[in-house]
Amino acid sequence: MEHLKSSKDNGTLSPPPTPFGPTDDLGIRNENGILGGGPPPPPLPTTHITPPGPPSPEPTPKPSPTPQTAFTSQEATQVPIPVPDTPSGTYGPPPPARAETNPLPKFGIIYDNAEPPLTSSASPRPKFNSSPRMKSYQELNDAGSASSYPRLSKPVELLRSTYDVVVIGSGYGGGIAASRMARTGQSVCVLERGKEKWPGEYPNGLRDASSELHVSGNFAPGWTRGKLVEGGDPTGMYHLVFGKGQNCVVGNGLGGTSLMNANVFMEADKKTLALKAWPEEIRRNVDGLDKYYEKVEKVLEPEEYPDDWPELPKMKLLKKQAEHIGLGDRWRKVRQTTRFKNGPNSCGVEMKASALTGQDATGVNDGSKTTTLVTYLADAWNWGAEMFCECEVRHIEKAKNGDGYLVFFAWHGRNRGHFKANLHGDLMWVRAKKAVFLGAGALATPEILLRSKALGLPMSNMVGQNMSGNGDMLAFGYNTDEQVNGIGRPFPSPYNPIGPTITSVIDCRNQDNALDGFVIEEGAVPHALSHFLQVMLDIMPGASEPKDETLLERTQAALARYGSRFLGPYFKRGAIAKTQVYLIMSHDSNQATLSLQDDKPVLEFLGVGRSDHVKKLNNLLQQATEKVGGTLVHNPFFALMGQQQVTVHPIGGACMARDNTGATGVTNHLGEVFTGTGSEVHDGLIVTDGSVIPTALGANPFATIAALAERSVEGYCKSHGLTISEEDNGLLDLFGEPQHAPRRYMPARKRERIDLLEEHESLIEANEVIQYADDIKAAGMGFTEVMSGFVHFDSNLKEDNRETYQLAYRTAKSLCESARFFLSVQAFNTTHMLNSSQHRAMLTGTFACPSIPGSPFMVRRGEFNLFILDNKAPGTRNLTYDFDMTGVNGRKLHFHGYKVVDSSVALAPFQFWKSTSTLFVTISEHVPGMCDDLDNEDAWRRGKVIAKGIMHIQPADFLSEILTMTPTGSNLLKKVISATSFLTYFTRKSLSLFLAPLTPLQYPSPTYNGFINNTPPDQSIPIYASDGVCTRMHIWEPTAYPDNNPANIKNLFMIPGASVDHNIFALPTIRFNAVNYFTRAGYRVFVTVHRIGQLMIAENNWTTYDARLDIRACLEYIRKNYILPSSDPSNPSSSKIYTIAHCMGSVAFSTGLLDGTIPASWILGITCSQVFMNPIWSTINLAKITHAGPIPLDKLYTKLSGGTWFSCSTSPQDGYFQCLINQLLRLYPHESRREICNNAACHRTSFVFGRCWNHDNLNEATHRQIDRFFGGVNMRLLNLLMKQGLEGYVMKNDDQGFEKLTTEENIQRLKGIPFLLFHGRDNAVLSPEATERTYEILCDTFGSNGVNTGNGNDGKTELGGDYKRRVVPGYGHLDGWMGRNAWKDVYPFVREEVDRVVRGEGYKFVEPDDKFKRMVEGGELLY
Fold it and tell me: Which residues pair with 823 in a beta bridge?
């Protein structure tokens, strides 16, 4: 998709070349030699993320070309860094085709043949009999436009960590700063408290307007002390601030108060500018501000109401009133920033002529109002500025690491306001490298500065002082004799237009004393307040009624009042339709102050509304009203709150100092903030809004605010060598992409370069996700979450297990190391989130833990996974939180947290709440690229751990979290579907875990999955026993050996148990299996698969006693081919082999040794896993034997099934009897809920052998495919096992009378063989007594020090061996070999014993430098 369209004529997008060169698809400059000549920088390898395809039948956009980027690293010469400015449509598939321009909809009064009347009184009437038809953006969208409304702002998810410039607020001061600084090529971030709304989105009715009202301040009627109040939407368009003495109304939204002001462009008179309150640079050069007024005029294009447009009754009446009171020569039309013609404005945005709605005070929906949104901000957007809404800036700090400032803000988006305790406590922040421009308004800017000062930023003590209400007064000339038509209408009649809110003025500013000057303007009441106005004017006390009225006049007045009451405010002859609105601006005492009380702003005006000057103005209004037969009614604040006025023009609070020192003001003449009472200023901290104005202007102030802002920005640019481009925009495509991008430079420090590159990549991916969802109009889902707990700062806490987290939590709690995060979770495409395996959403917010240096941390574009399958634990779903976070000191760390929802929640509501509200947290050092692969769940393990702990959701926070859950979408239906889909998925997954015993059984998978460590043998040898039975033996050659000397290779023989094969030692589903472990330790590994293992011949009624023949045959093969040819006759041990035997393989091995089938002289040592010659069943297995009923289970199964083979595998297609067994095994008893699962093969294995593992120790792949590693058992073998386990010793077969083999004579054959016996503490197959009894027999028989045929330093036989027994905590039966963490919990002590016996007491194992060592050191196996 072309980033810049080709040049065309007649108003289409035609961006001329910029002085900084062209941009690529990312909006990144790739011109050669921006700072000089030379070749272009080499390209970075491209990154292209392919988004998931949309669900049918949504169309799939075509993928866009892969963006090319260019980064170079030069210490001496900075090179522009191509960090994307992520314009709409930049990344990912292009949006559907649309027109090259998207002009604002056509509004305004429509005349036949497009010819307006010549005059209002003599012109022909329009030839149609309906109201004007005004299209909205939504109608354009329905007709095929790409989006309902333009969106200049970006989601906060796309906020960068650092910008050159941060602008606070988006009114006149903020908009000008953003536009001008963006035109210098700086990267600009605009933070606006309100939302972005465009014509067509502003409220019309009372209900809509009420939802946009925010009320705050000190509610103090009369002389009461008052009470702090707070209510409504803090990001709403209309902010009513109560103050003691006077109240204020200001606006929020992208565009600030310009969205709701009356558009009057009125320069300050020269006498006012010459007052002593102004800095010398201004008061001695009052004409010097003219050029800045002209700059503003060039952009905003103010003009008077045209003479050839319909005459407006309210304007006509004000002129008449002016003449009645002798001020006719002072009446004139005002210049205003209302459009009276169609076409693009000065910044290239299409606008339409006014429909004369009178709706300015609540937002004009006809597209005619020249706000900063359609001028300065649109221009800033076109030059690469990035804007973010619902961001309430709280304070500013000096950056702790490097130059610039940190701007802290409360993000109100994603319904975060429901967490009232956290909203202003857990602040987000962004860094401004060079400058911060405060344009938040005369109330918000002093508040920010006061809070910043309280938090340590030095500045003048004059902050919050010398504020003014600009002498504003509001009054009404109620029920006059004249038609006024001053009530706004969203769709006015062309025959009776209201007009702009203000169109004319009685300008009385030219006085000998500038403080005596004032202006009186007519106004209009917006439709939203029209019905309220009637009630207010009727009941308002203190009204000044006309004198000497006749009975007829009083009767007519009463009829007019009743007409409005019963027929509404638009009744032509009603009192409301004949009510004039007065707006006065004058000079007050400038004695208002703003302070912080309980961290909330408190406004206090002194002397306002009681001065002689105000009384004079009220008398003047009284005369003007009486002359036209009306009743003067003061504003409701004046009458109901003790003669308090209301102002819409608060100014001051961060005033310019008259002597350019902090002793008399907060800023110098350029708006730069003083560092104290002297003349020194904070470099790059500049105020550009009305708070710098040191005195009331006696006129509408926005023109002066804008001119001073232009002056301040120009001064900053000159002092810093920046040039503001004057290039024309052409016609802007507000639905397209900006024509320009800021210049970004590669930092000199390597760490900063890496961080910037990673941010670049994350922005690409995040923007692509957001843009793709927008292109296909996908519905999303989001919520906000607060979790708190304790995190211990300690780099030694490396283990990823509950015990480690609990230890860290307890330690942190004792040290008061509290932690908290405040994160918003947003899925931009609910369908994709729920259908993908990762169930991914985006995280944005903050993490705070004072014990970790750099706190608080900013979280941008993190990853949340909802009920993701935990591959490390069977039947477990995790809710995971993974994100990089940047501290205020610039340090980047990584946060990984997970909530574990496993079978322990089954039928346990409290446990379910505990699982879903408990987060296990690991904080680690950030490793570059660690999050490049979003599907790598273990990427977080690469960083060095620095802290661990546990966090929880508190019940109150959970209730708030529920309230924040909000669907997003282009229409109500999509929102409903999104919310329903999300809640259905969440409920389904929750119930599948909560009701685990009742959920459908999980049958064996037909395909292999999760084989991450395939370990095929180097050889597979057929082995023939003495009775002719053929089995197999697998051989693995060593991958490393001591001293890199092949002579140091040793042989190791391993015997698996019944029903399994070599895979329990060479398990492909864990990353580090036993064969890997021992081959890298220098051992040639042999594993037998005997006749009772996972072979077809196992069905032929073989037993453990028979399997001893296979073991002997394997040993004979090993001795013949590997041992005897290289054995040392002088060293008897060289002809022996060390053996590791597990479970029934160990039992079979013991029978061969005890009856002499296997000569003990062949064996160097033995490690017995779980049992050797004394099998004793666990309690539950004994119960199966002793309490199964009159018929033993093996006999019962044979009788009912008609066969002698019980398979551990199954399928839904099995016969009825097998399916019945599968369902009955749901009821198999478990020691704890953690061992509950719905795997049918696991159930069958547990039924026949007992539970073979702690489920926590297996990973999902092993458990899911357990049928691949287990065969089955024949009933003859089962019968023998039952009998042996019941009697507690090994024996011969049934046809040999179950002869006992553990006789004293037989045990003597074991003399001289060192034994290590280990047992899982949680073994549910065999009792711990199985190894304990063997250990006691060996010790009692041979003494605690047996003979060890180990290989000493001199190669001779020596004494000193013994018998060892070890209980392994946390392990069961088979998970000691198949567990995901067996590599660190079991294998090492087994190898140590093998090394001791085979290589000698003095041998020290040295880890080979291989992939397993790197995985261990990288933390990839620490789980």
Answer: 785, 845
Q: Strands, DSSP E only, in 510-605?
A: 518-523, 580-585, 593-597, 600-604
Query: Which H or E element spans position 1177?
Result: none
Contact 1243, 1004 (CB under 8 A): no
**89 contacts 1 by C-beta, under 8 angstroms:** yes
Tokens linked to 591: 């004695």
Query: Dihedrals φ, ψ of 786, to 5°?
Result: -120, 130
919's enclosing H/E stretch is: strand 918-925
To which H or E segment does residue 1205 belong?
strand 1205-1207
Low-confidence ranges of the chain (pLDDT < 70): 1-147, 222-224, 402, 535, 538-549, 553, 562, 607-611, 636-643, 933-934, 1127, 1130, 1187-1189, 1344-1361, 1422-1423
Name 228's Cβ contacts closer than 8 Å, sequence gap at least 6: 217, 218, 219, 597, 598, 600, 602
| Torsional class of 38: left (φ above 0), alpha (ψ -120 to 50), beta (otherwise) | left
1269 to 1063, 1086, 1263: CA distances (angstroms): 7, 18, 10
CA atoms within 13 A on the CB side of 780: 21
Both tokens of 1319, joined, read 């047992």
Q: At what angle do helices 1104-1118 and 1143-1154 cross, to 10 degrees?
A: 80
- What is residue 497's three-state secondary structure? coil
CA-only gyration radius of the chain, Å: 42
State the pTM of this model.
Answer: 0.81
Return the pLDDT at 755.
85
DSSP string across 14-82: -PPPPTT--B-TTS-B--TTTTS-SPPPPEEPP----PPPPPTTS--PPPPPPPPEE----SSS--B--
E strands in 643-753? 645-647, 672-674, 681-687
What is the distance between the alpha carbons of residues 818 and 797, in angstroms, rounded to a whole number?
Answer: 17
Contact 1134, 1128 (CB under 8 A): yes
- What gap in Å lies between CA 175 and CA 168, rounded to an integer? 9
d(CA 1013, CA 1072): 7
d(CA 926, CA 887): 12
Question: Would you say 469 and 600 are in contact if contact means Cβ atoms under 8 Å apart?
Answer: no
Contact residues for 1101 (Cβ-Cβ < 8 A; gap 6+): 1204, 1274, 1275, 1276, 1277
Angle at CA of residue 45, ends 39 and 49, nearest 5°? 135
Q: CA 34 to CA 448: how far, in whole Å? A: 38
Report the relative pairing of strands 473-478 and 580-585 from DSSP bridges.
antiparallel
Listed residue (67, 70, 69, 68) closest to 94, CA to CA: 67
Amino acid symbol at 1214: D
pLDDT of amino acid 1230: 78
Task: Residue 484: count other Cβ atoms within 10 Å of its Cβ.
Answer: 26
* Gap between the Cα atoms of 1250 and 1228, Å rounded: 10
Question: Are the C-beta atoms of 119 and 751 separated by less than 8 Å?
Answer: no
| Stated length of the chain | 1423
Kindly give the residue spans of alpha helices, DSSP state H, lying in 212-345: 270-273, 280-283, 290-300, 313-324
d(CA 1068, CA 1325): 24
Task: State which amino acid sits at residue 907.
Answer: L
Whole-Å CA distances, 1123 to 161, 373, 706, 1086, 1313? 66, 87, 95, 13, 18
Q: Where are the alpha helices (DSSP H) in 995-1086?
A: 1074-1079
Q: How many helices (H) and strands (E) does the chain have?
A: 36, 49
| Alpha helix positions (H), 285-416 | 290-300, 313-324, 376-382
CA 1006 to chain centre: 38
CA distance 913 to 905: 8
* CA distances, 451 to each of 250, 600, 681, 684, 1188 (Å): 20, 10, 18, 18, 77
Alpha helices by DSSP H, listed for 628-749, are: 636-640, 702-719
Residue 558, classed as helix, strand or coil, is helix
| Three-class DSSP category at 874 | coil
The residue assigned the tokens 């009920």 is 867
